[in-house]
Backbone:
């Protein structure tokens, strides 16, 4: 009988999101994939340094026990198979039980998210992230220069989400951008009891909720909603989560204050936001990723010709 990932939280991640391959990637961009492959082969026995999403992956995998496989991590990368050897060797070095990988040597790998039934895709490649989101997979472009997660909470997976265009749809954000703050506040006040439509990351929040319920006594998930909303617009966000029967542990309604310092205090293993300014502001403090969703990201960025995931 074939193996199955049914019932597991599946994270697909590029090798550049999991490990720090920035030096190697600079060589790829400056020369060609052959030089990149040769350098990776030369460094085959040299473990790569942890990347931006390393802590998130390491902590999620800790939910697995000998009796229950709850999380599956798959390396899904534009790298070539030779470079994939180093990614697997590095995972083994750090004790990450990663067994599966797909390496496409420059071709878009996001199509493999569907047979994987992925709950999350993390990559440094903008085009792949946008394609994943378009097919309904929660996805974010990691910022390789972002801070690495701290070690203050070894037994907690800590994840922070923006609200509009991430957990929720961009319905309210469209009102804000087209008609201004006063219209946004009025729109949300009038619809306080009406749940917001789901955003691209609702499926991940649901999967994390299921993982928490099936988790072990010494491993837990702590989530935070970190949003520019303020009262009275906060009520619709809270009521929406209540309607979904999903709880978050912390909610920060910041009314436009910069999110970075608040995230620094929460110390997430990863933060997701649709606004590039918020993501860049968070990056000096915490691991962060850009969700290219909603009206703020309606115009696609021109893809770079040479870009590894």
Residues:
């Amino acid at each position: 009988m074939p193996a199955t990932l049914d019932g597991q939280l599946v994270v697909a991640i590029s090798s550049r999101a999991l490990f720090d391959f920035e030096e190697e990637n600079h060589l790829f961009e400056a020369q060609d994939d052959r030089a990149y492959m040769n350098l990776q082969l030369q460094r085959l026995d040299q473990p790569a340094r942890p990347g931006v999403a390393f802590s998130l992956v390491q902590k999620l995998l800790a939910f697995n026990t000998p009796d229950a496989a709850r999380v599956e991590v798959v390396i899904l990368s534009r790298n070539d198979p030779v470079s994939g050897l180093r990614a697997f060797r590095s995972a083994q070095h750090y004790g990450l039980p990663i067994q599966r990988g797909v390496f496409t040597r420059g071709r878009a790998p996001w199509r493999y998210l569907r047979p994987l039934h992925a709950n999350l895709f993390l990559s440094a490649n903008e085009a792949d992230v946008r394609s994943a989101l378009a097919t309904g997979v929660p996805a974010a472009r990691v910022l390789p220069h972002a801070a690495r997660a701290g070690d203050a909470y070894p037994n907690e997976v800590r994840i922070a989400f923006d609200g509009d265009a991430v957990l929720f749809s961009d319905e309210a954000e469209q009102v804000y951008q087209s008609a201004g703050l006063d219209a946004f506040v009025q729109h949300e006040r009038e619809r306080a009891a009406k749940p917001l439509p789901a955003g691209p990351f609702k499926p991940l929040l649901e999967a994390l909720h299921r993982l928490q319920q099936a988790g072990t006594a010494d491993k837990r998930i702590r989530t935070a909603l970190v949003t520019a909303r303020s009262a009275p617009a906060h009520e619709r966000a809270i009521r929406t989560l209540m309607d979904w029967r999903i709880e978050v542990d912390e909610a920060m309604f910041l009314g436009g204050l910069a999110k970075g310092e608040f995230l620094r205090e929460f110390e997430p293993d990863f933060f997701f936001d649709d606004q590039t300014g918020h993501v860049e502001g968070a990056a000096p403090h915490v691991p962060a990723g850009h969700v290219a969703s909603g009206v703020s990201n309606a115009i696609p960025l021109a893809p770079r010709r040479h870009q590894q995931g």
